[in-house]
Amino acid sequence: MFRVYKYFLAQPLDWIFCFMTVEEYKASLRKKYGENKKANDRIFGTVTGFIEEIDDLVDFALDDFDQMFGEYTRLRVAPLVFPLPTGEMDGSASFAVILKRAEDGDTFIYSSVKLAYLE
């Protein structure tokens, strides 16, 4: 399993309109990746690896969310996702997932990249 950093936002994130749902992002990723598929396959491998990374992070986040809140895990919006540079020498990117609880708007970010400004 990869390393995951979890952040609770003291101020709930209400600017959700500027993020994509996981399904929207995966559709966009497939489309953009496919625009130069041959080169992208050679450089990055298949798009499937990126989709699996997102799915793994979402699964981890939802499981953790469920353990934290039990029966109060209804989401205000579908899980949201955004890309982040990893800071590695290879110039790679990774992803973060946002979960927003319906009951009170509590917002959690799960990221495979450390986001020091959210600590």
Q: What is the secondary structure topology, with strand pairs?
A:
Blueprint: E1 5-9, E2 20-21, H1 22-34, H2 37-44, H3 47-69, E3 80-85, E4 93-100, E5 107-111
Antiparallel strand pairs: 1-5, 2-3, 3-4, 4-5
Q: Give the fraction of residues assigned to helices.
A: 25-40%
Taken as a percent bin, the fraction of beta residues is: 15-25%
What is the helix tally?
Answer: 3
- Principal-axes shape call: globular
Major beta sheet summary: 5 strands, antiparallel
Report the radius of gyration as a whole number of Å.
Answer: 15 Å
Annotation keywords:
119 residues; alpha+beta
Write up what this structure looks like:
This protein has helices spanning 22-34, 37-44, 47-69, and strands at residues 5-9, 20-21, 80-85, 93-100, 107-111. With 119 residues, the protein is an alpha+beta fold. A hairpin with a 7-residue loop joins strand 3 and strand 4. Helix 1 (22-34) runs antiparallel to helix 3.
Give a quick rundown of the structure:
With 119 residues, this protein is an alpha+beta fold.
